[in-house]
Predict the structure.
Amino acid sequence: MGKIDANNTLKRLRNRYRLVVMNEDTYEEVVKFRLSRLSVYIVLSSTFVLLTVLTVALIVFTPIKYYLPGVGYGDARQVKEFRKLKIRTDSIENELKFRQQYFDHLKKVLDGKVTELDTNKLTLPKIDNITD
Protein backbone atom coordinates (compact mmCIF):
# COMPACT_ATOMS: atom_id res chain seq x y z
CA MET A 1 0.00 0.00 0.00
CA GLY A 2 1.32 3.46 -0.83
CA LYS A 3 2.40 5.99 1.71
CA ILE A 4 0.07 8.99 2.16
CA ASP A 5 1.94 12.19 1.43
CA ALA A 6 0.82 15.25 3.42
CA ASN A 7 1.67 17.58 0.54
CA ASN A 8 -0.36 15.49 -1.90
CA THR A 9 -3.37 15.49 0.45
CA LEU A 10 -3.13 19.25 0.95
CA LYS A 11 -2.95 19.76 -2.82
CA ARG A 12 -6.07 17.65 -3.31
CA LEU A 13 -7.89 19.70 -0.68
CA ARG A 14 -6.93 22.93 -2.44
CA ASN A 15 -7.73 21.86 -6.02
CA ARG A 16 -10.41 24.08 -7.53
CA TYR A 17 -13.63 22.69 -8.94
CA ARG A 18 -16.48 24.40 -10.70
CA LEU A 19 -20.10 23.73 -9.80
CA VAL A 20 -22.51 24.93 -12.50
CA VAL A 21 -26.29 24.96 -12.26
CA MET A 22 -27.83 25.04 -15.72
CA ASN A 23 -31.32 25.49 -17.08
CA GLU A 24 -32.20 22.12 -18.63
CA ASP A 25 -34.28 23.55 -21.45
CA THR A 26 -31.92 26.28 -22.71
CA TYR A 27 -28.60 25.02 -21.33
CA GLU A 28 -28.05 28.48 -19.93
CA GLU A 29 -25.84 28.77 -16.85
CA VAL A 30 -27.95 29.96 -13.95
CA VAL A 31 -25.33 29.91 -11.18
CA LYS A 32 -21.71 28.84 -11.04
CA PHE A 33 -19.46 28.34 -8.04
CA ARG A 34 -15.71 27.85 -7.73
CA LEU A 35 -15.15 25.43 -4.89
CA SER A 36 -12.41 23.39 -3.34
CA ARG A 37 -12.71 20.41 -1.05
CA LEU A 38 -11.28 22.51 1.78
CA SER A 39 -13.87 25.29 1.36
CA VAL A 40 -16.73 22.76 1.25
CA TYR A 41 -15.38 21.09 4.40
CA ILE A 42 -15.08 24.44 6.21
CA VAL A 43 -18.62 25.53 5.23
CA LEU A 44 -20.16 22.21 6.29
CA SER A 45 -18.21 22.15 9.58
CA SER A 46 -19.15 25.75 10.38
CA THR A 47 -22.80 25.04 9.63
CA PHE A 48 -22.76 22.00 11.89
CA VAL A 49 -21.13 23.92 14.78
CA LEU A 50 -23.54 26.84 14.37
CA LEU A 51 -26.61 24.59 14.38
CA THR A 52 -25.31 22.74 17.44
CA VAL A 53 -24.70 25.98 19.34
CA LEU A 54 -28.15 27.32 18.43
CA THR A 55 -29.83 24.08 19.52
CA VAL A 56 -28.03 24.03 22.85
CA ALA A 57 -28.82 27.71 23.44
CA LEU A 58 -32.49 27.08 22.64
CA ILE A 59 -32.66 24.25 25.16
CA VAL A 60 -30.70 26.01 27.93
CA PHE A 61 -32.24 29.49 27.77
CA THR A 62 -35.91 28.67 27.13
CA PRO A 63 -38.54 26.63 29.01
CA ILE A 64 -38.25 23.88 26.39
CA LYS A 65 -35.87 22.09 28.76
CA TYR A 66 -38.82 21.20 31.03
CA TYR A 67 -40.53 19.32 28.20
CA LEU A 68 -37.51 17.24 27.14
CA PRO A 69 -37.14 13.92 28.95
CA GLY A 70 -33.67 13.02 30.10
CA VAL A 71 -32.45 16.60 30.45
CA GLY A 72 -32.84 16.41 34.23
CA TYR A 73 -35.34 19.18 34.89
CA GLY A 74 -38.50 17.07 35.05
CA ASP A 75 -41.68 17.92 33.30
CA ALA A 76 -43.66 21.14 33.65
CA ARG A 77 -46.46 19.52 35.64
CA GLN A 78 -44.03 18.39 38.33
CA VAL A 79 -42.58 21.89 38.62
CA LYS A 80 -46.07 23.35 39.05
CA GLU A 81 -46.91 20.72 41.68
CA PHE A 82 -43.69 21.48 43.56
CA ARG A 83 -44.55 25.18 43.60
CA LYS A 84 -48.05 24.48 44.92
CA LEU A 85 -46.67 22.19 47.62
CA LYS A 86 -44.10 24.81 48.62
CA ILE A 87 -46.81 27.45 49.01
CA ARG A 88 -48.98 25.07 51.04
CA THR A 89 -46.17 24.05 53.38
CA ASP A 90 -45.23 27.69 53.95
CA SER A 91 -48.81 28.57 54.87
CA ILE A 92 -49.08 25.55 57.19
CA GLU A 93 -45.82 26.53 58.90
CA ASN A 94 -47.13 30.07 59.44
CA GLU A 95 -50.41 28.72 60.83
CA LEU A 96 -48.57 26.43 63.24
CA LYS A 97 -46.37 29.32 64.39
CA PHE A 98 -49.42 31.51 65.08
CA ARG A 99 -51.22 28.71 66.95
CA GLN A 100 -48.19 28.02 69.10
CA GLN A 101 -47.91 31.72 69.88
CA TYR A 102 -51.62 31.78 70.82
CA PHE A 103 -51.26 28.77 73.13
CA ASP A 104 -48.16 30.27 74.77
CA HIS A 105 -50.03 33.49 75.53
CA LEU A 106 -53.07 31.59 76.74
CA LYS A 107 -50.88 29.55 79.09
CA LYS A 108 -49.32 32.75 80.48
CA VAL A 109 -52.78 34.17 81.15
CA LEU A 110 -53.99 31.00 82.86
CA ASP A 111 -50.84 30.80 84.99
CA GLY A 112 -51.25 34.44 86.00
CA LYS A 113 -47.90 35.51 84.59
CA VAL A 114 -49.30 38.40 82.60
CA THR A 115 -47.15 41.47 83.11
CA GLU A 116 -49.42 43.91 81.30
CA LEU A 117 -52.82 44.38 82.85
CA ASP A 118 -55.71 45.72 80.85
CA THR A 119 -56.71 48.96 82.55
CA ASN A 120 -59.52 49.95 80.23
CA LYS A 121 -62.82 50.39 82.00
CA LEU A 122 -65.57 48.29 80.57
CA THR A 123 -69.05 49.72 80.66
CA LEU A 124 -71.56 46.94 80.37
CA PRO A 125 -75.21 47.68 79.80
CA LYS A 126 -77.52 46.84 82.68
CA ILE A 127 -79.69 43.86 82.11
CA ASP A 128 -83.06 43.83 83.77
CA ASN A 129 -83.92 40.60 85.45
CA ILE A 130 -86.46 39.02 83.25
CA THR A 131 -88.47 36.37 84.97
CA ASP A 132 -90.69 33.96 83.21
Summary: The mean pLDDT is 86. Residues 62-110 form one domain. Strands lie at 16-22, 29-36.
